[in-house]
Amino acid sequence: IQHGVPEKTAVKIWDDMAQFAEYGFNKSHSAAYALIAYRTAYLKAHHPREFMAALLTCDRDNADKVIKDIAECRDMGIPVLPPDVNASDKDFTVEGASIRFGLVAVKNVGEAMVDAILAGRLAGGPFRSLEDFCRRVEHRHLNRRAAESLVKACALDGLGIGRAQATAALDGALEAGVREQRTTAMGQTSLFSPEEAPAFSAPLPEVAEWPARQRLAFEKEVLGFYVSGHPLNDHQEVIRRLANMDSRRLAELEGVHRVRMAGLIRSSKIRTTRAGRRMANFVLEDREGTAEMTMFPDVFEAYFSLLETEEPVLVEGMAEASEEGVQVMVRSVEPLAQAQLGRTQRMILHLGAAGRAHGRLAAVREVLARHPGEVPVLFALQFPEREVLVQAGRDFVVSPSDSLSAELGELVGAEAVFFE
User: Fold this and answer.
1) Is residue 23 located within the same domain as residue 76?
2) CB 282 within 8 A of CB 293
3) Where is each OB domain found (predicted)?
4) pTM (2 decimals)?
5) Fewer C-beta neighbours within 10 Å, C or N terminus of the chain?
6) Which of 98, 99, 96, 162 is nearest to 130 (CA)?
7) How many other CB atoms are there within 10 angstroms of residue 30's CB atom?
8) What CATH number did the domain enclosing 57 receive?
């Protein structure tokens, strides 16, 4: 009123404000969140690589979130490159059309060590060998445990040395690096500048490279997730055929649904009910993330032996959503390879035009002979008018597997191999 507002209008405004105060805070809160959501959506739409790199950096201490973020990057067509001492920064960064892992994501590698690595790289350029790396990174920050973690995380792969070989050579390389740094500190300079120093001064040990499964297990150990592949990659054709759900879509479910999921059993915990019977909770991991599973006593008694398997499994159960998330009550568990055999009625090979198919049959027959089993094989031949299915002879019965699919895929194309 003192500012010239009519009394009737001022009273009306005051009354409206008094009523609005009952819920006005919620509206202002929603408006602020809406602005943040809009800006976030804009950044993700117009700067997707920068946005996902920032998100991965924020989530780097939560393995489950990082797995989901990497899966989203894959859906967006953004490759996520593994850590590399010659390319990585401290955090996740954009590298061309890709995102590069940050070095601080590696277990046992602290920020002081990362700073020392970056300083060594800045001073002398890219590291050229394992010994060159140990010589140029200040030894106060570089210990065997951290260096071994870098090896396991594939951060030293670019130095032209296998991971098993690098692990075997670590002690000698670290000792050589410490000696040279101490010699330099005493004033005895090297004949070579950092750029001119020889890449190797000691022969590398001859050791067999780690098997793929072990390499992936070590990546999981030091990063919390896989970067160079996934144990389920070789089983995707079977999983697409047998499973109807993955962990990412499971998290979005509402209500109750019957699901079949394929993955690896992790973090199983067995406990005893009040009635004295045993049950279990475990985590099922797939390429998209993880899902919580519960085995009640009757199911536990039937399938408890599979809780320790390292092989992929197929889990069937009822998924139920609640405020705490989605939980799957398990009804059955079986090895994925066994599930594939039990559910496959026939295999169909699409050989293309009938006139050209004959030339492929000899090679196809050799592959089929290496995988004997009980599943019949049909050849799909393309004639001018239509496609015809031809039942193969009794000698053409196979045992379905990923290796069979891979071998046939090389001959006729992966898209031409079907199991029904």
Assistant:
1) no
2) yes
3) 259-336
4) 0.70
5) N
6) 162
7) 11
8) 1.10.150
